[in-house]
Amino acid sequence: MIDVLAVIAVSAVLAGIAVPQFTAGIERTRALGAARYLANRFALARMDAVAHSANAAVLFSADGSTFVVAGYRDGNGNGVRTRDIGSGADPLVDAPVRFSDLFPRVSLFMSDPASGPSSETAVLMSFSAVGTSTSRTIYVRGADGSEYGVRVLGATGRTRVLRYLAASRTWIDVP
């Protein structure tokens, strides 16, 4: 009986050590998945713009503590504009999704979270028919504190996912 209690005690201690590490790994993976999801949304918008010879865009609209992400295509030849989206001139091509529904406990920021909260309620990432785009970095933070940036390079329209290393205060490419 004493042997069984000793085994249970050791198992409880090991589980107490392993569970927080496992949970942190899940949260880090969820944040990285969110960053890769955004990079793929941008890549799809760029491909849509080139394939249809019309500007395309990804719109981030603030909705409480999260953002709604949706894709649009230029319908009247003057680029994707929020005014044209509102009037229906620029049609929806990717259904709007609440970011927090896809990635619970992952926060989305339109500017570097270290610089304080952004006052932006809508951000439009535009991609042209020749593959160029709006230059910007969108930031993602996981519940474990892991931070990622999705950088869109304007001249090429290509996206990169970056990870922030707090210890060295540097951003590195995620392969």
Mind explaining what this structure looks like?
The structure is a single chain. The protein has three helices and nine strands. By secondary structure, the chain is of the alpha+beta class. The protein has a single domain, classed as minor pseudopilin epsh fold. The strands form two sheets. Strands 4-6-7-8-9 form a five-stranded antiparallel β-sheet, with helices on one face. The longest helix has 51 residues, at 2-52. It is elongated, with a radius of gyration of 21 Å.
The percentage helix is 25-40%
Rounded average pLDDT: 90
Major β-sheet annotation: 5 strands, antiparallel
- Overall outline: elongated
Oligomer: single chain
Helical region count?
3
Task: Compute the separation of the termini in Å.
Answer: 52 Å
What Rg, in angstroms, do the CA atoms define? 21 Å
Could you say which structural class the secondary elements and strand pairing correspond to?
alpha+beta
Number of E-state strands = 9
Poorly predicted regions = none
Relative strand content: 25-35%
For the biggest β-sheet, the strand order reads: 4-6-7-8-9
Assign the CATH superfamily.
Answer: minor pseudopilin epsh domain
